[in-house]
Amino acid sequence: MHVDISVSTLINRPTAVVAEFAANPLNAPEWYSNITAVALHAPGAPFGVGSQMDFVAHFLGRRLSYTYEVTEHEPGRSLTMRTADGPFPMQTTYTWSAEGDATVMTLRNTGTPAGFSVLLTPFMSFAMKAATTKDLADLKRILEQR
Fold first, then answer.
1. I want to staple 90 with a disulfide (CB 3.0 to 4.6 A). Which of 77, 111, 123, 130 is the partner?
2. The overall pTM is greater than 0.85
3. What CATH fold (topology level) applies to the domain 3-144?
4. Are 97 and 107 in contact (CB under 8 A)?
């Protein structure tokens, strides 16, 4: 069963500020509640298409380790990453668009879970949507306090 979750929020900060912070994978543990660690494969190298990073997360009571690779990056507009190695194929896309002096950020996760029971996929979709909604709310809070 395929998962396709998309959540958007309005953040009262300029698009450049939101995109710069959210696109930096080293900031992920600050606003993603399930991500506990991130390690870049090439620290100090320019970030863009082909960049890879390892994530450690906890989701539905399981520890997950996976590698994301940037497949598309248009700074200030969008970022797409896909799992290069991990428990199931997943793609994450961030998009940013200006709305006056604020930014609409959309976070979309798509993929086909493997290693989880097919019967759990509907629950997993619900849990992913709830987590994504919370993560964007946390990002909004963090950035609007700066």
1. 111
2. yes
3. Alpha-D-Glucose-1,6-Bisphosphate; Chain A, domain 4 (3.30.530)
4. no
Q: Is the dihedral of CA 8, 91, 73, 30 positive or negative?
A: positive
* pLDDT digit string, tens, across residues 36-61: 999 999 998 999 999 999 999 887 77
40 backbone dihedrals φ, ψ, rounded to 5°: -75, 140
Detail the DSSP E strand segments found in the chain: 3-11, 35-40, 52-59, 62-74, 78-85, 90-99, 102-111
CB atoms within 10 A of CB 130: 12
Using a 10 angstrom Cβ sphere, with 0-12 exposed, 13-18 middle and 19 or more buried, the burial of residue 37 is: exposed
